[in-house]
UniProtKB/TrEMBL annotation:
<dbReference type="InterPro" id="IPR009100">
    <property type="entry name" value="AcylCoA_DH/oxidase_NM_dom_sf"/>
</dbReference>
<dbReference type="Pfam" id="PF02770">
    <property type="entry name" value="Acyl-CoA_dh_M"/>
</dbReference>
<dbReference type="InterPro" id="IPR013786">
    <property type="entry name" value="AcylCoA_DH/ox_N"/>
</dbReference>
<dbReference type="InterPro" id="IPR006089">
    <property type="entry name" value="Acyl-CoA_DH_CS"/>
</dbReference>
<feature type="domain" description="Acyl-CoA dehydrogenase/oxidase N-terminal">
    <location>
        <begin position="17"/>
        <end position="126"/>
    </location>
</feature>
<dbReference type="InterPro" id="IPR006091">
    <property type="entry name" value="Acyl-CoA_Oxase/DH_mid-dom"/>
</dbReference>
<keyword id="KW-0560">Oxidoreductase</keyword>
<keyword id="KW-0285">Flavoprotein</keyword>
<dbReference type="Pfam" id="PF00441">
    <property type="entry name" value="Acyl-CoA_dh_1"/>
</dbReference>
<dbReference type="InterPro" id="IPR037069">
    <property type="entry name" value="AcylCoA_DH/ox_N_sf"/>
</dbReference>
<feature type="domain" description="Acyl-CoA oxidase/dehydrogenase middle">
    <location>
        <begin position="132"/>
        <end position="225"/>
    </location>
</feature>
<feature type="domain" description="Acyl-CoA dehydrogenase/oxidase C-terminal">
    <location>
        <begin position="244"/>
        <end position="384"/>
    </location>
</feature>
<comment type="similarity">
    <text>Belongs to the acyl-CoA dehydrogenase family.</text>
</comment>
<dbReference type="InterPro" id="IPR046373">
    <property type="entry name" value="Acyl-CoA_Oxase/DH_mid-dom_sf"/>
</dbReference>
<dbReference type="InterPro" id="IPR009075">
    <property type="entry name" value="AcylCo_DH/oxidase_C"/>
</dbReference>
<dbReference type="InterPro" id="IPR036250">
    <property type="entry name" value="AcylCo_DH-like_C"/>
</dbReference>
<keyword id="KW-0274">FAD</keyword>
């Protein structure tokens, strides 16, 4: 009898409490039952499966770590585990969840007023309201800290936004979009809750992506959008506040990379045990076993790293460079693992039906978003050398 397929080779899940382990298995079961059967078709057609949103709501996990506002108040470790379990089946769905639960709810939780939290967080937890996070612009990606060109000007009791935002996940159907803009008066970056029906707010779907095709990314145009003072995030007063949100979500993206790699490894292992050539399962060949072991070594190292990352986060010790190092290492190794997974599957490795082709494509987006490899490396480089190579 063949051994069980298990991408958690060092059984790191044993560190979880029985309650947390039950949540992990519930997410896994949900992803395998609800998402796996439909995912390749939605990916192929560049569509989002809106019908899964109420089922997602039943999981009751949005706003994973937040205290109050109906949110679960779980640990950062559990936030990572959930991201990994989702990405193990599909990285687009994990990204949808990350944008909702992390970037957009997180901006309100970390930078919002009590009234804003009361208005949005319970409804977003229940997925009755969908969120998006607009930082990147058509001409400003890595250089967002100093380079944002979207402007905001205070006019009496309102704030007037002008500019464009590109790549904004969930934007085509979001009810609320967090927009980051530079105040023309004091030069600081501020955050705003923009409602989808605000006059002057338009979204165009970005078409033709070769990765994360299920995620609906939008190009947003803001033309004299008037936002009331009550929708300005009062604790977002400079880019440092934006960076606080990004530090938290970047740790989640490292976990997502682990999930993508784990899904690819497990699919590949399963395939190689079933596929026969020269009258034998290809998994019995030495060179195939070598590929599988290389994949598993990297996967095991990645998992050990993100468990420790979350321990730091749960202990209040997480620094930008910790999150950046994990994001760089995991997204780089994931690229390697998905490519080996494809290789051991031969021609079927490029067919959507066998899942791994989707993982190969999606790994490219994980590699570049939430800070590219270069930018996250420079964050670590600055921390260890004392020299900033950014400017
Ligand atoms: P650029 O900044 O133009 O970089 C191009 C290349 O130059 C990269 O290799 C980069 O590393 C390198 N480079 C740039 N500066 C330096 C430097 N100083 N030194 C060395 N190398 C450098 N943004 C949002 O705000 N909200 C979202 O929801 C969102 N979702 C996304 C979803 C997807 C699928 C993708 C692909 C992107 C998403 N983004 C989102 C944007 C994402 O964060 C940016 O793509 C990312 O920050 C990189 O910016 P850029 O694409 O403009 O690349």
């Amino acid at each position: 009898e063949l051994p069980e397929i298990n991408g958690d080779f060092y059984e790191l899940h044993m560190r979880l409490s029985p309650e947390d382990r039950a949540i992990q298995l519930r997410v896994r079961e949900f992803m395998e039952r609800e998402i796996q059967p439909i995912v390749n078709n939605f990916w192929l057609h560049d569509e989002f499966p809106y019908e899964i949103i109420p089922k997602f709501a039943e999981l009751g996990l949005c706003g994973v770590t937040y205290q109050g506002y109906e949110c679960p108040g779980l640990s950062f470790l559990m936030e990572g585990i959930i991201a990994m379990e989702m990405a193990r089946v599909d990285s687009s769905i994990a990204t949808f969840f990350g944008v909702q639960s992390g970037l957009s709810m997180g901006s309100i939780y970390m930078c919002g007023s009590e009234a804003q939290k009361q208005e949005w967080l319970p409804a977003m937890h229940r997925l009755e309201k969908i969120g998006a996070f607009g930082l990147t612009e058509p001409e400003v990606g890595s250089g967002a800290a100093g380079g944002l060109t979207t402007t905001v000007k205070r006019v009496g009791d309102t704030w007037v936004l002008n500019g464009q935002k590109k790549w904004i996940g969930n934007a085509t159907f979001a009810d609320v979009i967090i927009i980051w803009a530079r105040d023309v008066d004091d030069g600081e970056v501020k955050g705003f809750i923009v409602r989808k029906d605000t006059p002057g707010f338009e979204v165009e779907k970005i078409k033709g992506k070769m990765a994360l095709r299920i995620v609906q990314n939008g190009l947003i145009t803001l033309t004299n959008c008037a936002i009331p003072e009550s929708d300005r995030l009062p604790h977002a007063n400079s880019f440092k506040d934006t960076a606080r949100v990004l530090q938290m979500t970047r740790a989640g993206v490292a976990w997502m990379a682990v999930g993508c790699a784990r899904g690819a490894y497990e699919n590949a292992l399963d395939y190689t045990r079933k596929r026969k050539q020269f009258g034998k399962p290809i998994a019995s060949f030495q060179l195939i076993q070598n590929h599988l072991v290389e994949m598993l070594s990297n996967l095991t190292a990645m998992q050990s790293l993100v468990y420790r990352l979350s321990e730091l986060q749960d202990g209040g010790l997480l620094k930008d460079e910790h999150a950046s190092l994990a994001k760089v290492f995991c997204s780089l190794r994931t690229r390697d693992i998905v490519s080996k997974a494809r290789e051991v599957m031969g021609g079927n490795g490029i067919l959507l039906d066998h899942n791994v082709a989707r993982f190969v494509a999606d790994a490219e987006a994980i590699y570049s978003y939430e800070g590219t490899k270069e930018i996250n490396s420079l964050i670590v480089g600055r921390a260890i050398t004392g020299f900033s190579a950014f400017v």
